[in-house]
Each structure stands twice: as C-alpha cells, then as structure tokens.
Fold this protein.
Amino acid sequence: MDVEETSLLFYVRTGLLIPTLLLGALLCVAVLTAHGLFRRILIARTLDRVVVLLLAVVLVWAASSLLYFSFNAFAPSLLTPAYSRVDAALSYTCVVWLVTANLLLALSRMFIFKELPDESTTVYYRVILFISGVISVTLFAVCFSLTDPPSRFGIASIGTEISPRVVIGLSLVIICAIAVFIFIYLQTYMQISRNLAKAWTSNLELRIRLLLQKKALKSCTAMSLGTVVSYLPLGLALLISQALPNKLRSFPDWLIVVLSELAVLDTVLTPIMVLVFVPKVRLCLLKLVRIIDHEISTDEDTDHQESMELAVAD
C-alpha cells in the first residue's frame, strides 16, 4: 500500500467513522435519558436493566471511539502513550461487555419464558458479570504491562504486540459468546413454537401468552443483531489473520474500511433497535421530546411577550 493509498484510506475511514459514532452517541444519550426520567416505567424488570447496561456500554464505546478517531484525525499529538494505553484497554473491555450484555439479554428472555423467579436466576447473572469483570481487569493489566502502547481493538490490532496475547482470545470470546446467545435464542424460539403448536386448538389464553412471548423474543433477537453484524466479521478476520504468515496479514483497503465501519455500526443499530422493538421506550422518548418542545415554545412565547411589553413601554 503506497502513501497515496494510505492517505485515501485514512480520509475514507475518518469520514465514515466519526459521523457514525457521533450519531450513535447522540442516540444512546437520548434513549438513556428517557430511561432515567421514566425509570419507574422503563426499568421495572431485570430484562430492562440489561437493556440499560447494553445501551450504557454502547455509549462508552461510541464516546471513547469518537474521541480517539477525532484526535487521530485532527490532533494526533494528543495520542500520548498514557492515553493510548487507557483507550486500548477501554476498547477491549467495551467489546467484552457488549457481548456480555447481549448474552444476559438472551438469558433474561429465556428465564421469562420459563417463568423462573428472580431468586433462582440471580446466580447466573452474578457469575457472568463476575467473569466479565475479571476479564476486564486482566485486559487493563495486560495493556499497561506492555512495553509499547497497544492498539485499540479493531483492524489495527493485527500485527501489534498485543495480538498474540489478547486478540486471539478476545476473538474467540466474541465468536463463542455470539454463538451461545444465538443458540439460546434458537432454543427458546423452538420451545415457544412447540408449545404454541400444542396449545393452538385447546387453550386460547395460553396461545395468546405464547404469541406475545414469541414477539418479545424476536424483539430481543433484533436488539442483539447489531453485535452479530458488527463484531462477528471482525472477530473472524482477526482470528484468521493470526493463522497467516506475517507478510500476508495486511487486508485489502476496501476490507479495512468495511470492517472498521462495521465495528462502530453497532453504536447506531443498538439504540435504533431498542426504539423500534421496545414500544414503551419509544413512547417515553417521544413524550420527552414533546416536553422539551413545549418548554422551548413556552420560553419563546415568554421572550416574545417581554419584547412586546418593552416596545409598548418605549
């Protein structure tokens, strides 16, 4: 890849990544604000808290990535070794918590279908959260123990010092976690379908409940779609790259652009999926928008009235 191609690739990636991350961050802030203001309605169940965790992690991922790519494009002198270490550790940790949140989302929906009480399922959440916490602490320790500042998680991880230690492991974690929550979704969907077939001609109330559960399961699956689309191709690419000789680890320009954009596309897809498939979140956000619009209109009317009074006084 010559200098001209490298420069072109840099501008294409920057022109795509920064707007995507900015949009994703704004969407996450809006949805999380609605959750905060209407928490009695929107954070009533364990499933709701998992959705908040997912949105919070996506926001951290979007904000940290936006900061990094903005510095990289407009103020590279700010990319100090200390900042690079923190940013790299944070990026790897965010990916871990993204797949963790999606795994918890799949488990929550399965537990609701099985009608298991919170007391009997809490241990599963705690174990998964503990494991993710240990992995996060380990990632920070590894990033700060390396001689040279590591690259943040993504296509730039290939060929760096951190790759043999962490990229292979994280790629496997991503692929396995995605496979597990897809398996959970499929198993739950098949069980609901079987129960629905049995109850189709006998119990109307049970049939309605199963249809609602099936619809809710599709909504949760859609919310996890962003993680699958964004990180599975990147995880596979990073894993495959480690099996190739060093001289073959460079990817074509178009693939670098695609994989880079996919890695941040989740910041937009996840909040959009939450708004589309969770009606109460969408309604609360619309209510918040109407409240803000009303306050702005009231302020404008007040300013206009004060201006008229001053004009009359003059």
